[in-house]
Write a structure and sequence with these properties.
Layout: H1 3-6, H2 10-21, H3 28-33, H4 35-39, H5 45-57, E1 61-64, E2 69-72, E3 84-88, E4 94-97, H6 100-112, E5 122-126, H7 129-135
Parallel strand pairs: 3-5
Antiparallel strand pairs: 1-2, 3-4
The structure holds zinc ion (ZN) (2 copies).
């Protein structure tokens, strides 16, 4: 547990743990259904969303726009740059990839086109290595 996670509230820790222990992205309702989260007394969606909001601000959790679900960041050090995700459509495994080169490219293109970006989300759908080899 690093300095940042030490400053989290009990609710935020419970939500973060649920996401870290899950092998796939979870919606706010799925987080609420986790036994550990229930036991820690978190039963209102609003409380879950509040904890998620803070964790996202801190860079510890990312939101997957295409699924309306959340994943724990796989990096030890929180990052401010947006993350890119490869999402397996079969098993829902989500792989976070470093994408600053792609982002720089998009930002440069947007500037060229005078396009003002509100949010930048990169999500790639497909199948993960284990699902591909299970089929072969
Ligand atoms: Zn991340
Ligand atoms: Zn898969």
């Amino acid at each position: 547990m690093n300095k940042l996670t030490k400053s989290l509230t009990k609710n935020q820790v419970a939500v973060l743990k649920a996401l870290q222990e899950s092998s796939e992205p979870l919606s706010a309702y799925e987080i609420m259904e986790r036994p550990d989260v229930r036991e820690s007394g978190l039963r209102a969606p609003l409380t879950i969303y509040r904890a998620l909001g803070k964790l996202i601000d801190l860079g510890l959790v990312h939101r997957l726009e295409s699924m309306s679900a959340f994943v724990a960041c796989c990096h030890d050090i929180p990052h401010s740059s947006p993350a890119t995700f490869m999402i397996c459509g079969s098993c829902k495994q989500t792989i976070e990839v470093e994408s600053s080169a792609i982002e720089r490219r998009i930002l440069a293109e947007a500037k060229k086109q005078s396009f003002e970006i509100d949010r930048l989300h990169l999500e790639v759908s497909g199948r993960c290595g284990s699902c591909v080899s299970a089929d072969n």
